[in-house]
Amino acid sequence: MASFLDKYGLTQQSASGTATLLPDAVANLYPFNSGISTSAAGALDPDIALHELSVSGTMALTLAASTNKAGFRKTIRCIAAASSPAATLTIANPDTTAGFVCASTFYFDTVGQEITLEFTAGGLWRCVNVVRQGGTADNVVVGTTVLTGKNLWRGYYLSVTGTVSSTTTKAIPDGSARGERIQVGCSTAASIPSGTIALTGITTLGAAGTKTLGTFNATTVWSALEWTGTAWQAVGGVTAVIS
């Protein structure tokens, strides 16, 4: 009776009749072990399990649907970041299932940022894990900084001058994987500061349906938030008023 390896065409017979593994047999048995590093803009291979990014300057990346079976997972990780790094990954077919909505773009600018995507039976990419890194003092000037796609920062540190507010494209983006955590703090507070920042989507902060996190009026104010799949939920903080 043919062995498992023979049955699936993973061996070849030598002239002496000895069966040996084909060169690609191990890769065929363990396809998820494959990986690649890249420092170039363009399309990422949707059928390779790991992409390690070296980001230098502004880069545009894309990811199409995989040809692998449902359940295939792909990890994209930033391993180097230099020269004002800004790599934007656009996903052609993100999951839109309620509770599992995946962002259509991700912004890599800090070493250690990582996302893991799973290809679904419906042919969509579902985000199952996010590792956030980055976020420097005053990286969000309230009322000015556009945050669309800036969804891999661990910290959003607000610069508040006077009475200012961030909404719509300047709001904190949704998460993509349940359990993601961020910290929103205030690194500059000046000119009788009173800053608020909106959270996209429906949130469970405070009263039902509220969408605003504030007021940030001192550098001692901060709030820790966790993504539930549909909303940012407060899990800690100091003197942040939910309204």
**What is the chain-wise order of helices and strands?**
HEEHEEEEEEEEEEEEE
- Which structural category do the helix and sheet elements fall into? mainly beta
CATH fold title of the largest domain: Jelly Rolls
Our count of domains comes out at: 2
Mean pLDDT: 84
CATH architecture of the largest domain: Sandwich
- Strand content of the residues, in percent? over 45%
Uncertain spans: 21-33, 204-209
DSSP, total strands: 15
What is the helix fraction of residues, given as a range? Answer: under 10%
How many strands, which pairing sense, and closed or not: the largest β-sheet? Answer: 7 strands, mixed
Radius of gyration: 22 Å
What's the helix count? 2
What's the level 1 CATH class of the largest domain? Mainly Beta
Large-scale geometry = globular
Q: What is the terminal separation in angstroms?
A: 72 Å
